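Homework-ish question, so no full write-ups if that breaks the rules, but can someone show me the predicted structure for this set?
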Amino acid sequence: MQPSAKNYSISDASTVNLPNFDDWIISLQKISKTYRKYGSFLPTQIELLKNVHDGLLSSNSRVLEFAAPPASGKTHVIALCASYFEAQGIASCVVAPNRELASDFVRESHNIESRLIPEVLTIGNYVRKIKQFGFALIDEAHNLRSGLELCPEIVKTIHIARESSLYKILLHRIEQTGLIAKELNTESAHDTLTTLRKYGDFSGLAKILGTLTEWRTFLFQTEQGLDIKFLSTNPQRRDLIPKKRLLLFSATPLDEKELQFYCNINPASTRVFSKITHSNEHMTNVDYLFVDCATELEKTRLVSSALTGLKITTLLLLNNNKECLKWSRVLSHQHERRVITIRSHVSYSTRVQQYQKFAGSKNGILVTSSSVFWEGINISGLRIVIIPNPPYPQPTLLEVASGVHPPYEAVVRRRLTQGAGRVGREPNLPCVSVLLFKPRGMAFDGVTGEAMTQALQNLLPSAKEIVKYVR
Amino acid sequence: MFPLLRHQPIPVFTYLPTIDPKPVNRPQSYQILGGVAKGITTSSKIPVIQSEQAIQSVQNRIEPLTGYVYENPEIGRFRVDLGESDHREISIDQFENYAHLVNRIVDLALTTFSSEYYKYHPDPPYILRDEPYFDKDLISRTGVLDAKRYYRGVHIFKDSPVFVLNRETQLRSHGNMLNEISDLRTQFGESREEKIDLYNPSQSFVDYINYLFRGKTADVKGYPGPSVRKINAITWKYRVKDAVPGNPVSQMEYFRKTYGITGLDPEQPLVEYSIENTREPRYHIPQLLSVGHDMRDLERRIPRWRRQQVWGVLHPDCKNQLSKIFEILTKIDENLRRYMPGTYPSIFEIAKEPLDVSEIAFRIPELKLLFGGKDITVKHPFDISFYHQYSDKNIKFAKPVPRTKTIVLTDLDPEDLKSFMSDLQSEFLKRNNSNLEIEFSTAPSLASSAREGDVVLTVSPETDEEDAVYRNYKISIQNKTPAAHQHVTQAHADKDSVMQLVMQLALKLGFEPWLVPPSINVKRIFGLHSYLDFETGKRLVFAIAHNSDGSLLRQFDPVDLQDFDRLAEELVAINEKSGPSLYLFGFDRFGLIPRLDSLLAEKKDGQLEYCIVHFEDQEHFRFFETWFPRKAPRFGKAEEVESKSIVEAFEVAPEGLAVRASENTYFLVTGRTIEKNALKRGCPTPVRLTLASKRGAVWKNDEVVRLIFSLCIMGRASGHVTRYPSPLYYLRSYAHYFRLYGLPDHATVRQKLFHI
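A: Not a homework solution, just the prediction itself:
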């Protein structure tokens, strides 16, 4: 009776009618405004399209995973393919991990000449509408590790503020262990929900109570209060495969085991194309540097000093809210007018408002711990990215529930690749990507603080040309 | 366990009853008086009990004294009149009577005096509370509801009375059996993508329903009557509106005329069942039945991903259980203070703090084993991982199995089992340093296949007929041939199972996976199990003898109760020949301990050294985490003694615990049974052992208890610490086998642990 990971037979996998590769490219060229504008696709785009073509024709796997480095023009390729499938009569959609990237796709769709523009969805919306689509193309698919948990069908969260009277009532449930997270047994979860229902005004409680044995319940103590998180144990809820095929795109793809664990996709249903190595992730117009700073103080002093007089847009990527606020405070002493802060868990509208302020400045320093800015997003004219600390991941709820430690180093490398990839997206625009620690297993050049400062200073002459390169 | 802080004599009014017509025997009169006492308690709101042939009331006189009626369809209708006899006091020395009165007063506090929903449970020591935790979705898919029942009773502990309160889960039909069947359509229909018509279901649904209900017991609902002891089938061949063979009146008509029951669904199927001494099937109405369920029933109905949460309801964690128990205790205390101030707390009072057992408890810190010629220490937790810790280690059995030929019987493709067989052979070689030859049978019959090998391994897919297939193998192979039989389902024919299988094969073939260090003082250990088949009335005694290292000396054939003395003579002869012997009795339902004791006492002029220990289930008790090790003086910063668990549901249970209840009585919590997905999850229930008799200088109580603990890791079929020591663990397994499949023909087979 237990539904296991999806394993579709080859016979029920659907293929799309594709012409040979050359003819297919010609038909894509016809609908690509970008192609018409520049007269060619990028070589990385051609390579990715070739992989997609091969994958669709040569494999019956229901899930195809494609890797392509940051700034390789994936967004346009994904939008093109989705439009093409749509035009073939196969309902298709593009799935993005967050609203900012979804907006990027909507903008990208204006670069395609087609009457049949595919729907662009966030992961949460996709899960709800999955059965409407024949093809789904998920960008930044490595986000499925944690992104699926943004779906209320998979994880529901109730927040109890520290000042709420319920906070004290519930706190004793975790106090006995002194741990920040604790799983509640079903009976405790039932009693907790009944208490919430009696004393609080929370929506959706009746629905959870009505299916409580489908959920595992966790209590988390945070700075803001208590989070009660419900994790669906029904593996079907993680089913991401649409009616025909699922195409996953990422610069740092999840492997088959991770896809099975996080998305309940059987490895036998998956085919991975074009694995990339860390060496080919690097762009020629970017200096990848690291400074092995001994202390946090050294890091803040070095950055604050290096950015002085450097009127170039800069991105500082932090791993958590606390760090974000600390760096924001420190940098504001010397660069108050330039610093724009976007911490984690702010509303979409606040995030957009702050980001627009940054995008409108010519020398802004964006200090952020929001995951939105770590990957995928294309920040126009950005020349410097600084990452002070290794971005060790927070375990997902599924990992907590399964007692599985996330593959820390792999996730760190993935996030660093993505973070460092925020610069260099304009082929001829020199940029610098700086880590303030020694990375493991990644090709960054170790330099002194002075050398790093000099590398940043070297960008200055080119800064005058920024406008020229911005598309 | 909550001490009775005050237990003064309880003043009672005593009445002598006259019953008309006269009951046929004493148990019947007890039943009638018990029913009347409970009825008066409810109607008059005063505690009334039946005590022997009398009725007693507390606090108030019973009024009126005449005209009480007790009616039960099984025994008839009786009129009961009372005559006041005397007014006396019942002291704690009259323990049973006193405990009965306290229990009834507590019942009253929870039922009549409470505004919440409590009611008397059909089984007297329990109070039922409507405290459901199953969610709507689960109920609509399984057709099963949960409720909580609270055990209450007065016991003696540390030579003083204690009030025991425990909370358990009870599972039953959602409303009634028809409703339950209707609910089951949802899940069945979804999994097979078909719509099930309750009145004309597909054969696959009929088979599924029968698979779930066959053999179950059902209580009647909505009218007084006997329960259905064993369901044979649910049949759509006849409906409630139909006359059935041998009965021209339909069931619907019968219940309308006899009990005035109307509004029954006329098209519903019928439950077919049998009663003793008749061959003709009887029929009942699902709508008038409610089925009691267990965790195995639920396991068949819910997907694996949901089980952990459901088991969390059935076995909540210790903290939750304790808080609920305290909640009920507070309720009892409040209600009695308010409604029975003349009795409570002035005459008796229940403490609000549980009994502190730290002074009388000790914990077995480790168990020692002989495994692969090495001394191995098993430390806490004594969980199932012990044996599996050796999965990669090249460690041999204590008495390994020589080269063995196995015949495999299966309808599955041998190619599909190739990897499993290879793993099995590797594991066998690793543990025994000998080969397991495997041959797939081509012989036409089961018996002829079995004659060719030392072991017959059957592998079958998991189907609805699984039980029948298994039974057939046991009867045709294990009971008819000298070979050992081992069965494995297709789902378990994998690498994870081979350790367990090789261990069981070794035991079935008469070899020893591991042993305990032999006791210096105790030479032989006997187990005795009293067996009563409630259906046939058959009474047997099963016995087994072990050496002091836990190895099997001999498994005896079960004997009829009247032949017990002959069996006892055999055991005593071994005792005489070998030296000090320990006799472990399971529940002594036939009163055999005094008989054996007197026989032993006569030998060697009263100098024979022996010790008799009596084991009883004590499922009403739980020892929760509030038990702490004895405090010792500490200097500096106090160490933390509590174990912490990230998951609330799996608190650390006080395994390896012995609590001395009186001079010769101990409660043992042998090992933890907490497993996330296992049927028996939760705090382990203790067993009570009483040193009933002993002669000789070698028997020091604590040492006997330690020896018994070490035998709890010798129930090697399981690979972990068992609740009962190995002699009794094996005998229970033997009796279970006997009840289901009978006995093997070959004496050589019967002397080994063929039944595990």
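Now go work out the reasoning yourself. Hint: Chain A has three domains: 10-148+237-273, 155-232, 286-465.
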